[in-house]
Amino acid sequence: MEKIRIGIIGTGSISHFHMVGYRASSDIAQVTAVCDLNEDRARAFAEKYGVPHVYTNYEDMLREAPLDAVSVTTWNNAHAPATIAALKAGKHVLCEKPLAMNAMQAQEMADTAKAAGKLLMVGFVRRFAQNTDALKAVIEAGDLGEIYSSQVSIVRRWGNPGGWFSDKKRSGGGALIDLGVHIIDLARYLAGNPHPVSVYGATFSRLGMKPDILGVEKYKTADYDEYCDVEDAATALIRFDNGMVTYLNVTWVDNAEDSSKMHFSGSKGGAQLEPVLEIYQDRHHYLNNIRPKLQYQGIDMEDIFTKEIRHFVTCIRDHSPCRCPAEDGVWLMKILDAVYESARTGHEVLIR
Ligand SMILES: NC(=O)c1ccc[n+]([C@@H]2O[C@H](COP(=O)([O-])OP(=O)(O)OC[C@H]3O[C@@H](n4cnc5c(N)ncnc54)[C@H](O)[C@@H]3O)[C@@H](O)[C@H]2O)c1
Question: Which pTM does this prediction carry?
């Protein structure tokens, strides 16, 4: 069988992890073209990985390059236009998270994929982590009973990546749309993808970039600057149609120690996904803590992207069901829209 020919739109930080994945799947896929607004960056990427075709405009790439599928790894504001253009040009798409800037765009992307008969997969890469797989198996076996509550949190003390991330017209928002996406999705995914019904949320923009901090380094995006018009932090209570309530806390900047915590409370047992996977069950009248033995306790970026990309190209080759379908990206965007709306109005927002 011919290899699946891949184009990458956006050759910044995360595209290198997509490339790791495509190289690991070189038996069935091959990256044949790349595109970035920044020509030097696109050329350097193409040279590093031996990609023959380089573009600065994705419309040109979609028209001229022989491609079957693309990875969209641009700033958030280009996810919808690039994905829709690719789908209309007959390509399958793996689009990075968040699927779009808002739910309306995300729905249009999902509808375009359906009309074109092409796969639109959302880059919910944490669904491919070993700890997620292990906990999913425990939950699907019924060991935790009904999950009625989950608490998910990522706290960064001084972690605003700057550049496009903190520029609302290119990102759509701050900590919530960046980090919140991953952990809200995990709460939904592990609980069996319930639909959200209501959200009460708040966002905070009190601390900003803190440009004068000394003594520590932080991750800075490729085109770093200190412009910021997005939230440092967000908190929300999200109610789902299976009765589960998720408490979310996410910060880019906070007067608190860095941490990542996810806990699920069920009628028969509970589980902590992060910082370390641990299952809590009563056994023979004793309170048991069970720690599955895993190769990677936390997240190994190369491992999760390799599995995500393998899944994408396998779905294309075999027409098999996708673990991260577009509709899950749409539901996620409906939740984010509702948090921002609730933060703006001070009231609970219903989701339909
Ligand atoms: N899954 C994850 O864990 C994860 C981690 C980091 C970033 N991301 C997502 O990946 C995306 C990219 O993030 P990044 O950190 O790589 O950013 P980045 O700034 O390093 O790279 C983005 C690149 O896209 C290019 N670009 C922007 N608009 C374009 C357009 N219209 N056409 C062609 N190129 C365009 C930029 O020039 C830049 O080189 C974001 O959506 C982000 O949310 C996901």
Answer: 0.98
